Amino acid sequence: MAVTTIADDLVVSGALSAANIVFGAVTISPQVNTPTASEVKLNQPDTNEPVVLLCAHSAFPWTRVREVGFRFSTPTGFTAYIFRTSDADTTIHWLSWQPALI
Prior knowledge:
With 102 residues, this protein is mainly β. It has strands at 21-28, 36-41, 51-57, 65-74, 77-84, 90-97.
């Protein structure tokens, strides 16, 4: 695989830029067979509702981790949820960005 090196300033145009992307992880200690929530704080530069993607880090997807999701997405944060059939602490990785206004 070839590696490309850019020896100049990289300019990104359009709706997505490095300034409006944030990512991280949150560890949740779930209750068995119950949706369990954790608050995630963001520092988005805009006031639009961000798009959020979640992924649970698990050796047993769909066997023990049944669902991950979020609610209440705002520029200052969101609530991450997990539904799990065991009580093992689970790390949820998240990615968030500000969509363009159309």
